[in-house]
Amino acid sequence: MTKEKCSWRSEMFDKILIANRGEIALRVLRACKELGIATVAVHSTADADAMHVRLADESVCIGPPPARDSYLNVPALLTACEITGADAVHPGYGFLSENARFAEILEDHEVHFIGPRAEHIRIMGDKIEAKRTARRLGIPVVPGSEGGITSDADALAIAREIGFPILVKAAAGGGGRGMKVARSEDELSAALSTARSEAKAAFGDDAVYLEKYLARPRHIEIQVLGDGRGNAIHLGERDCSLQRRHQKVWEESPSPALNAGARDEIGATVAQAMRELKYLGVGTVEFLYEEGRFYFIEMNTRIQVEHPVTEMVTEIDLILEQIRVAAGGDLGITQDEVRFFGHAIECRVNAENPVSFRPSPGKIVHYHPPGGLGVRVDSAVYQGYVIPPHYDSLVGKLIVHGKTRAECLMRLRRSLDEFVVDGIETTLPLFRALVREEDIINGDYHIHWLEQYLARGGMQE
Fold it and tell me: 135-170 burial by CB neighbour count: b if 16+ within 10 A, else e?
């Protein structure tokens, strides 16, 4: 791209179109308002009464309820940019946030994509290429195949070398789809076949690769921020080990499993890698952590659902920084200036049955979020709002901060007891049970803990 074509990036944006919905759209809108930037909300017909639509300076309906016809409809989004004069698009998370082609199309139309460069989205979106890149940048990786698996015979040879159990993973996916465990040679062929089928159906690509399956790892992720010119910092870690079907439900920072030395070492490694990569914007480098060792698994090239946890312990507005560096600004803070304050925990409250996790769309009859010192609720719902069946079931995120982890847990317990969402089922009862579990109180859990807890009847319908 020529210097002349890039010149429009040098100043803060005039108007940002928010290509998302729900709590993240509202979160981005608030950051824009604090920066004095005009906002455009886009919405499907199902979201006409959504809070971000009500609060934005302008709104544009981009299609019917199905996401493919609205929030994933690139021509409709481009048209919305054109008719409103938006000079930038914030994709939030999900939908088109990690779509490299979407970023390129926006650039071609001189609309800025608030996120990384397309090449970095593309590299990190391919799990095999991401591992190669991580290894080249000095980031420790999980033992596994060097590339995609071409045959069952090759897979067996590699699995024997690594040692069982083995994890078969989709090269082009995430969220637990296209991911299967083979605990012995007899299970490998079926795991490969199932993973390929799921990957093809979910991502249009049946390429898979192998990784060593770790028995009791933590899921640790490092938050990064770069200016795209070789300057980058890390903002500490989040522990996201409480998961169900590879979906996070509880995140906290700092991790109960790390000491300051381990945190500083992995943070410095990741920040240096992002400097070498000349990474632009926010991102999260994710690891499995077991017996004192970190193993890279993937990088998310977008803002994370759990970003408020980091904001609470660093007092840094990640969305604001994301917008500022996307507009060509320098990093507003050096690594030496990053400070960590206390402890924060986030619970993802979903419109789901707390035991079976069946979706529970419908009308919220009563809604009362908790409050008080150190309590934050990121949500776009309100009393009378109807949770539509077409999208993610997230009702909101409860984020609690305390001077210590013990204080944070007590504040979280109190906040969960205050939280009222009637008319639909939610996962609030699950969190009310978890916050009283001895392992959770002691910070002694791993990525399989929650599913094991549920399997042994820790929650009853």
Answer: eebebebbebbeebbeeeeebbebbeebeebbbbbb
Class of CATH domain 218-455:
alpha beta
Residues marked as catalytic: 302
Query: HSE on the CB side for 345, CA within 13 Å?
Result: 27
In the chain, where the domains are located: 3-114, 143-212, 218-455
Q: What is the pLDDT of residues 361-376, one digit of tens each?
A: 999 999 999 999 999 9
* 65's tokens: 């309820």
Average pLDDT, rounded, for the chain: 94
The label of the residue with tokens 């914030």 reads: 90
Its pTM stands at 0.89
Q: What does the block give as tokens for 245?
A: 């079907």
Report the alpha-carbon distance of residue 70 to residue 67 in Å, rounded.
5
Q: How far apart are CA 139 and CA 284, in angstroms?
A: 13
In tens, the pLDDT along 9-62 reads 446 999 999 999 999 999 999 999 999 999 999 999 999 999 999 999 999 999
Both ends of the chain: CA-CA distance in Å? 57
CA 158 – CA 9 distance, rounded (Å): 47
Q: How confident is the model at residue 5 (pLDDT cuts 50, 70, 90)?
A: very low
Pick the CATH number of 143-212 from 3.40.50.2000, 3.30.1490.20, 3.40.50.2020, 3.30.460.80: 3.30.1490.20
Rounded Cα distance between 238 and 246, Å, is 16
Distance from chain centroid for Cα 73: 22
Strand partners, 346: 251, 399
- What whole-number distance in Å separates Cα of residue 98 and Cα of residue 76? 18
**What phi, psi does 110 have (nearest 5°)?**
55, 35
Question: E-strand spans in 245-342?
Answer: 247-253, 280-290, 293-300
